[in-house]
Amino acid sequence: MAGDEAAFSDLVQSHNAALLRLARVFVRDFAVAEEVVQETWLSVLSGLRGFEGRSSLKTWIFRILVNRARTRGTREARTIAFSALGLESDGVESAVQADRFTRSGRWSRPPSAWDVDTPEKILLQEEAMAVVQKTLDELPPAQKLVITLRDVEGLDAEEACNILEISETNQRVLLHRARSRVRAALERYMAGR
Questions:
Q1: How far apart are CA 61 and CA 15, in angstroms?
Q2: Which end of the chain is more exposed for a tag (fewer CB within 10 A), N or C?
Q3: Diameter of the chain measured on Cα atoms
Q4: Does residue 179 contact residue 126 with C-beta atoms inside 8 Å?
Q5: Integer Cα distance of 50 and 47 in angstroms
Q6: pLDDT tens-digit profile, the chain (193 residues)
Q7: What is the reported pTM?
Q8: For residues 129 and 160, is the Cβ–Cβ distance under 8 A?
Q9: Domains along the chain?
């Protein structure tokens, strides 16, 4: 029994922060996000014996969180309901401006390199991270979910698709659009300093 408690404690230790970050995508209030994470761990505890292993344990836990956070976010009316996130690509938004490419598909204006090697530049990294965080906060909810799972939490595409119950193509489009917006915000920041 003590080994089970230690294993569960290790599980909580390794995933709790990631679950909290993901819950914050659905609910704006930090305290509510913490409650959602606690409810998730209670569900994991009560359902662990029924875990069938059809996905990884991590994916299963994240899926429980997404379901709980979606329900709580809707009930709290602090976020858009998950069903209204518009996960399907509407084809309207361009991820990268067309004028950045030539007709042959090559870069006409490639992304500029960012060198960070002086103390002044290192200090600017904090400012740059603030730009990234602000941009992430302003992303459409579906893009924010995907980029949080992939780039912040480090999940692979298959895990993100399983957690969000979306197709790999949709995940790829959402991730590309989110990364493009973050990159564009950083380019504007770097050009303006």
A1: 9
A2: N
A3: 65
A4: no
A5: 5
A6: 455 788 888 889 999 999 999 998 888 788 889 999 999 999 998 888 888 888 889 999 999 999 999 888 877 754 444 444 554 444 445 566 667 667 666 777 776 665 656 656 655 678 888 888 899 999 998 999 999 999 988 999 999 999 998 999 999 999 999 999 998 888 888 877 6
A7: 0.64
A8: no
A9: 2-84 (1.10.1740.10), 98-192 (1.10.10.10)
Please classify residue 87 by burial: count the beta carbons closer than 10 Å to its beta carbon, then call 0-12 exposed, 13-18 middle and 19+ buried. Answer: buried
CB burial readout 115-142, b (16+ within 10 A) else e: eeeeeeeeebeeebeebbeebbeebbbb
Which position has the token pair 């399983």?
162
Beta bridge partners of 107: 101
